[in-house]
Structure formats: structure tokens, C-alpha cells
Design goal:
Number of helices: 7
Order of helices and strands: HHHHHHH
Strand content: under 5%
Number of domains: 2
Distance between the termini: 56 Å
Structural class: mainly alpha
Radius of gyration: 27 Å
Largest sheet: none
Length: 127
């Protein structure tokens, strides 16, 4: 690698200064991405995605980089990764489930109001 740099510097005298400018620019880009990710507000801007981050980066700074470059910065520099989520079963808001939860809540409120102690044990405790 050092040989390549020396050969390139011999061909083009401004190679070293361009390389230094690129490294400074990369550091500024990383700091800008770190700041944008830290200030990200999901209520206003939606769930964080590379496309949304790239759009906001274009709007708020002079940087324009590819999604691949953003992904490399987020993984390598910030330690962040995206993971696809599995869809949840749609039974949680069915009428039967809602009624069962309401009845359970009413029963628990009555028991707590009578002064009894309640221990709530789920399946994870039994294994």
C-alpha cells in the first residue's frame, strides 16, 4: 500500500494533499452522521432508516454520500446495525383479547383494593 501511495504521489504532486483533505472530510462526515443519529426524533421524522438519514444529511449539511457509505459509518464508527423485524400476530387487539385483558385488570384492581398481595407469575418463571 505504501508503494501505491508513493507511485501516485510521484505522478500527481497534489495527491497527498487531496488524500489528507479526503480523510478530514471523512472525519467531518462521521461526526455529522453521529450528531444526526443522536438527535433523531422518531415522533417527527419516523423510524431511522438509511434513506431518511441520507435525505436529512443532504438537507442539513453539504455532505452527499451513498447509502453504502452511511451503512459503513454506522456499523464501523457508531456500532449500529439494522435488523429486520418479524411481524407480530394480529390477535392482540381482537375483541376477545381486549375483553379478557379488561376483565383481568378489573379483577386485579378488586383484589388489590381488598388488601391482598398479588404474585404475578408467567411462563418464563416455570422453566
Amino acid at each position: 500500500m505504501a508503494g501505491r501511495i508513493i507511485r501516485a504521489a510521484k505522478k500527481d504532486r497534489s495527491f497527498v494533499s487531496l488524500r489528507e483533505q479526503k480523510s478530514v472530510s471523512d472525519i467531518e462526515l462521521t461526526n455529522t452522521v453521529r450528531q444526526l443519529v443522536g438527535e433523531w426524533d422518531e415522533d417527527e421524522e419516523g423510524m431511522l432508516s438509511l434513506a431518511r438519514l441520507r435525505k436529512k444529511l443532504k438537507e442539513e449539511s453539504e455532505f452527499d454520500c451513498s447509502v453504502t457509505k452511511l451503512r459503513a459509518i454506522m456499523r464501523g464508527e457508531l456500532g449500529l446495525r439494522f435488523k429486520k423485524i418479524k411481524p407480530l400476530v394480529a390477535q392482540t387487539n381482537r375483541l376477545r383479547c381486549v375483553l379478557c385483558r379488561q376483565q383481568y385488570a378489573m379483577t386485579m384492581l378488586e383484589v388489590l383494593a381488598s388488601g391482598k398481595r398479588v404474585l404475578n407469575v408467567d411462563e418464563s418463571w416455570l422453566s
